[in-house]
Specification:
- It is found in: Cytoplasm.
- This protein is 0% helix and 58% strand.
- The protein is built from no helices and five strands.
- Strand 2 and strand 3 form a beta hairpin.
- The two termini are 15 Å apart.
- It has a five-stranded mixed beta barrel with strand order 1-2-3-5-4.
- By secondary structure, it is an all-beta fold.
- It has one domain: Beta Barrel (OB fold (Dihydrolipoamide Acetyltransferase, E2P)).
Length: 65
């Protein structure tokens, strides 16, 4: 599992981006990848990365302390 920080998440649109801790690259996250959990800017998260239609997508996103 990778870790990162939520750069932003637009709840009304259901998507946002996570900045990977190791690479600094922004990864797209859709609400379907959060298992129904709300994400907020600055949340520390762990996630898995998969190939999406337009690039990398974060899945199985979990907020960590």
């Amino acid at each position: 599992m990778q870790t990162g920080k939520v750069k932003f998440f637009v709840e009304s649109k259901g998507f946002g981006f996570i900045t990977d801790d190791e690479t600094g690259v922004d990864i797209f996250v859709h609400v379907t990848g959060t298992n129904g959990k709300e994400l907020k800017e600055g949340d520390k998260v762990s996630y898995e990365e998969e190939d999406g239609r337009k690039g990398k997508v974060a899945t199985n996103v979990v907020v960590i302390d």
